[in-house]
Amino acid sequence: MENLLTGLRASAEPTRLRILALAARGSFCVMEFTEILGQSQPRLSRHLRLLCEAGLLDRVREGANVWFTLPDGGSPGGSLARAVVERLPEDDPMLAADRRQAARVLAERARIASESFRRTGADWDEMRALDLPASAVEQALLDLLPAGEIGRLLDIGTGTGRLLELLAPRVTAALGIDASRAMLALARARLSRPGLLHCAVRLADMYRLPLPDGGFDAVVLQMVLHYAEDPAGALAEAARVLRPGGGRLVVVDLAPHGRADCIDRLAHRWPGFSDEAMHDLFTRAGLIPGGVVAVPGPMDMRLWSASRAAEAVPADLFLEATR
C-alpha cells in the first residue's frame, strides 16, 4: 500500500500530470520537456526525479542523453501511471496545448535526425540498397509469426523501427534495440505517431541485452546476423530473453551468396547463412529449430524460425554459445 500511496502522491501535481501525459505519447529528454512545458530545467528535473523515484517514469541513459518514458504496463508503477493518464480529460485545454507543442518538437527531432543521416551517408535502408523484395519478406514474416496477438515483441537491431511499425497492431508491447543513436533518433520519430505508443526503442548491445530472462513472446533479428562478429553469442542472448515454453524467434537474413561487394562495400561479416548453419546455431543456443521460408530475389533471402522449450537453456550450452 505504501508504494501505491507514494505513486499517487508523486502524480498529484499539475506539472507532473502533464509530464505523464506527454510520456504516454513517447520518450522525451529534459530539454524537450522544457520546450514543451515552458518551464525551467531545474524545476522540471525535480519533477522528473520525483516521478522516477515513485516508479511512474523510466529514466534511460544513452550516452550524453537521458530519455524519460512510461514504464512497462506490467510493472506496478507502469500500470499506475497508465491508469492515471487514462483518467486525464482529453479535451483539457492545457493538455491539448502540450500535445500541439509535442508534435512540433517531434517533427523537429525527425528533421534533425534525417539531416544527420544524410550528412553521414546513413540515410538508407539495406534491403532497398540491395534491391531486395522487402514487401514479400514482410508478408512472410507476418505469416510466420503466431496468428493473432503476439504478446511482447523484441526487435534486435531495429534500425529505423520499421518492423515495430509493421507488427504494432499484433503486439501488446514492443521494444526495439539498436547500437546506433542515429538510427534510434529516426525510430523515435517514426514511433511518435498514433497507434504506435506501445512501441519503444533503446540503445543496447545485442550481446548484453539489459533485459530480464524470458521477458518476450517473440524476438526478431532482421538483416542483423550477417554483421555479427559472433552470431552464436547473439542468438544465445536472444534465446535468454525469449519466453520458455513456446516463445518464438525469427531470423531474417541472406541465403549464401557470392557477392564480394557486400563484404567490401557494406562491411558484411558473413556471406549469408545456409539452412544447416542456422539449424546448428539454433541448437547451440538451446532452441528448437522450426520452419524455413525462402524468398527469392536478386539475392535470395530466408526466414528461419525457432522456439524455446519449457526448460531453461543449459548453462554449459549457453556458455559455449557465447564464447
TrEMBL record:
Classification via InterPro entries: ArsR-like_HTH, HTH_ArsR_DNA-bd_dom, Methyltransf_11, Methyltransf_Superfamily, SAM-dependent_MTases_sf, WH-like_DNA-bd_sf, WH_DNA-bd_sf
Matches recorded under Gene3D superfamilies: Vaccinia Virus protein VP39 (3.40.50.150), Winged helix-like DNA-binding domain superfamily/Winged helix DNA-binding domain (1.10.10.10)
Matches recorded under CDD domains: AdoMet_MTases, HTH_ARSR
Entry-linked SMART domains: HTH_ARSR (SM00418)
GO molecular function, one term: S-adenosylmethionine-dependent methyltransferase activity
Superkingdom of origin: Bacteria
Listed name of the protein: Metalloregulator ArsR/SmtB family transcription factor
Organism: Limobrevibacterium gyesilva
